[in-house]
Design goal:
Elements (H helix, E strand, L loop, with lengths): L3 E7 L6 H12 L4 E7 L4 E7 L5 H10 L5 E2 L4
Antiparallel strand pairs: 1-3, 1-4, 2-3
Amino acid sequence: MNTHHETILDVPGMSCQSCVRHIHAALGELDGVAEVEVRLSDGKVLVRHDQDKTSVNHLIAALGEAGYESSLAAAA
């Protein structure tokens, strides 16, 4: 069974392709992360992940270790 969940994070400090690479590296190495989509235009990162292996708190902590403040995006 596919247990991947989509989480959208607000990451306001992103500004360039270097940021995109750093964020992909920080999140992509986490167990359970299947896909990372960085959207510079609106300061958001979409992560498809297995919540049983990687929680939202783990995602936020990994971004923090990479130097980026982030938070769970408000539901639209």
